[in-house]
Amino acid sequence: MVLFGQFLEILIGGLLSGVLYSLVALGFVLIFKASGVFNFAQGAMVLLAGLALVRSLDLLVANGFPFWTAIILGLVFAGIIMAVTAWLVERFVLGPLVNQDGLTLFMSTIGATFVLEGASQMIFGSDVYPLRLFPTDAWFLFESSFPGGILVNKLDVWGGLIAGILVAGLAIFFQRTKTGRALRAVADDHAAAQSVGIPISWIWFVVWLVAGLVALVAATVWGTKLGVQFSITFLALKALPVLIIGGFTSIPGAIVGGLIVGAGEKLAEGFLGPHIGGGIEYWFAYVLALAVLLVRPQGLFGERIIERI
Fold first, then answer.
1. Model confidence, pTM
2. Which residues lie across from 129 on neighbouring strands?
3. Cβ-proximal residues to 137 (8 Å cutoff; 6+ apart), any chain
4. How does pLDDT run across 3-20, given as a tens digit for each residue?
5. CA atoms within 13 A on the CB side of 84
6. Which sign, positive or negative, has the C-alpha torsion 271, 275, 280, 286?
7. Is residue 214 within a helix (H) or strand (E), and if so which, with residue range?
8. I need a labelling partner for 139 at 20 to 30 A (CA). Which of 8, 53, 86, 291 fits?
């Protein structure tokens, strides 16, 4: 019973941690699904959104605004910052590269990463800023069934709820709205989309804006968990195996991939770590992603690409 309780606690904690990875992976999926561009700058966008939010909160609270009013105004300000960022990226980075190959667009997002990182820290500072928007304590569940109960972090539960709402909203947006269908058309073929009157510049602005707002949501959760700091940009590397496993074009796949990565690395660390050495959770996800690539290169939920010549 004790062993099963330990397994259940690690599994639940891993699944909820995986949802937090999925919040970052969703931004990648959005941009790749709608424009065919792998956005390496998504981690930097999370950093920028988090810094804009926490610094505006500090300023508003210091000037006497009530906490909840400061939160609302801070979120609005951070949202405006992400909208301006989306416009700048479309205007000066992607706009001049319409109809270029995917590698060129990918390299441009790497350049945007360094610009966003430098600009965000130059404007908002480079210290570690605490952010407390969600509770960080834990529940102890099933105490009558397992000795000591099962620990569940409240922040992880909040992250799961937020991710579920985001997935539902984004699925409706892509499947049910005219703009969502236009986004998918642009991803399939830029030139063909232009030929039927779809404005590429507007579509790319919209998708980067939505990805920026998703980055803001991810920043609220990860900033509460880790503090808003430069290391948040490395979440992009953690989201990569999630994308490979779930599929680069699937929004539900980002969630499932995150759950698999989160649960897998925690279980491996908890049960294999004592026998083969610690630190398994730092590399387990990449080994799992490699195994998926060997069996199903497009990911579990990705679209199979067939090229006819």
1. 0.86
2. 228
3. 154
4. 666 778 888 888 888 888
5. 11
6. negative
7. helix 200-226
8. 53
